[in-house]
Specification:
heterodimer; A: alpha/beta; TIM Barrel; eight-stranded parallel beta barrel; globular; B: 226 residues; alpha/beta; Rossmann fold; 2 domains; four-stranded parallel β-sheet; 8 helices
């Protein structure tokens, strides 16, 4: 059983810190927060070509984390691989000692930096979970037997603020049925929405990681200018707090807000753990965790 | 029907620049309805080419003809009689029509005047929108008559992606999320149960290109297995 799985099962409110795989092979920046955080977080995650922009692979990043005796969380999107490649990636991950996997559809290529790339989506996230569960049971998606089955701890994404909520809930239930054991939300700023969504999830045997994020100036500028197009909302009072003119001051304020939100999520038991995004910066991660008393 | 868009004139002109005698063949069905490759558009392209050649002091002879359907041998076979009089052919049909005509008139180079865009509907005058990717595994009975393969850019079969926002599509917010539409329609019809079952992986082996279909009544004629 992975460390993340154990921590969630034991109710230890694990923290997963999101690292930023580089666009290139210089790993220094990606690993810079690790030394500061390794005693305070349960796992480190590495997105898979986040926002459809090219980065070093999640698999490579996770293996490097594993070599440093850290707990990795692999991201696997359906955007760039057909079922053969997805299955091969999962087998490869397991062989490299990676157990935690977060699956998702993946942002569409036209939204990223390779807009002319062929979108794959051979499987959707529900089907990918089924594929992974099949591998764990010893067979591939064609029903053929494996020589050695992987052990995976499977997660997926759920959107507490989805509008309309009906279609998302149907998909959420399919993900649970397909084998998702934990769920990660998009960034949460409106705790009231998370509170009500937590009630919806209460009857399901899953663990929830709420994402707490240190916002950057660009996101807030979008909100101020009415260009906000994200699946989570930014309450006006938080927008008001993020009025700092200097970028550094802005990030510090963002980290304080994130820390405050994180503390409330933990204290009110709004999630079973947290998925922390802090621009991949050691100082911001530390500030958030200190502000939350973690 | 098949929707197409006319290629830029400069591209067509450059493709046929080496030739002095060109036949432009229009198609009177889909591309005529979407106003890119019917009789009128053949006339327009012929005028453009002749005008451009005239301005450059080049000799250019352009023949014009429009057939009912270029994707049907019955309608293109008569062209064999006079295609040999030309150096090159420009087809204004969809990709299927262009290839079929090129196959028949293989002794002459053929050039496309349109880009074939999609299988769609004539929504309003001059407004066409896609509806079908010809996946050969129709899900419309399950998904309320709205195709997730085509109407969702990701072709997701089990519900919306995480990027949908206020019922709009992540990829193009001007468009509705296909899964929001599917949900609404089935909810309205009291048939939401249909999309609560997990749909399995799509059988892409049913759509290996180039596709061939033999009507059951003709299987013996073409030597296909019953």
């Amino acid at each position: 059983m992975s460390r993340l799985n154990k921590a969630l099962e034991a109710g230890k409110f694990p923290v997963v810190a999101e690292l930023k795989p580089p666009k290139g092979i210089n790993l220094d920046k990606m690993f810079s927060p690790v030394d500061f955080l390794k005693e305070r977080v349960t796992a480190f995650s590495a997105p898979d070509n986040e926002h459809a922009r090219l980065h070093l692979s999640s698999l490579a990043a996770c293996r490097l984390l594993k070599e440093a005796d850290l707990e990795p969380l692999l991201h696997l999107t359906c955007r760039d691989r057909n079922r053969l490649a997805l299955e091969s990636e999962l087998l490869g991950a397991a062989a490299l000692g990676i157990e935690n996997v977060l699956v998702m559809s993946g942002d569409y290529p036209t939204l990223g930096d390779h807009p002319q790339a062929k979108p794959v989506y051979d499987a959707d996230s529900v089907q990918l979970l089924q594929i992974a569960r099949g591998l764990m049971a010893g067979h591939d998606s064609a029903g053929l037997p494996l020589d050695g089955a992987p052990n995976l701890f499977l997660g997926a994404v759920v959107i507490p603020e989805a509008e309309p909520q009906g279609p998302q809930l149907i998909k959420f239930e399919k993900k649970v049925a397909a084998g998702a054991r934990f769920f990660v939300t998009p960034a949460v700023f409106d705790l009231e929405k998370l509170r009500s969504f937590r009630q919806v999830l209460a009857s399901h045997p899953i663990k929830l990681l709420a994402t707490i994020k240190v916002l950057g100036p660009e996101a807030v500028a979008q909100a101020r200018e009415g260009r906000w197009r994200r699946v989570y909302s930014l309450p006006p009072e938080i927008l008001g707090e993020l009025a700092a003119p200097e970028a550094e001051e802005f990030f510090l304020k963002g980290a304080q807000i994130a820390g405050r939100l994180l503390k409330k999520v933990k204290d009110e038991n709004l999630a079973d753990g947290v998925y922390l995004k802090a621009q991949g910066r050691a100082d911001l991660f530390t500030l958030v965790l200190e502000a939350a008393g973690l | 029907m098949i929707i197409a868009e006319r290629k830029p004139f400069a591209e067509i002109k450059a493709a046929v620049a080496p030739f002095e005698k060109i036949l432009i063949v229009g198609c009177g069905t889909c591309v005529a309805v979407c106003l890119v490759g019917g009789e009128k558009e053949v006339g327009l392209l012929a005028s453009q080419l002749k005008l451009a050649a005239g301005l450059e002091g080049r000799h250019l002879e352009v023949g014009e003809i429009t057939v009912e359907r270029q994707c049907d041998l019955e309608f293109i076979r008569p062209l064999c009689d006079f295609v040999a009089d030309y150096d090159a052919i420009i087809s204004m049909a969809c990709g299927a029509g262009i290839q079929f005509l090129g196959e028949l008139c293989y002794m002459r180079p053929i050039f496309p005047a349109v880009n074939t865009t999609f299988i769609g509907v004539n929504q309003e005058a001059g407004l066409y929108s896609e509806r079908c990717l010809a996946c050969n595994n129709c899900y419309l009975a399950i998904t309320g008559g709205i195709c997730p393969v085509t109407m969702c850019p990701k072709g997701l079969l089990n519900g919306p992606c995480g990027g949908t926002l206020n019922g709009r599509c992540e990829v193009d917010p001007d468009k509705e999320c296909a899964w929001s539409q599917i949900y609404q329609r089935l909810e309205h019809q009291g048939r939401l149960e249909l999309i609560k079952e997990i749909l399995p992986l799509h059988p892409h082996d049913r759509r290996t290109t180039p596709g061939v279909v033999i009507h059951p009544a003709y299987k013996r004629r073409y030597g296909a297995h019953e």
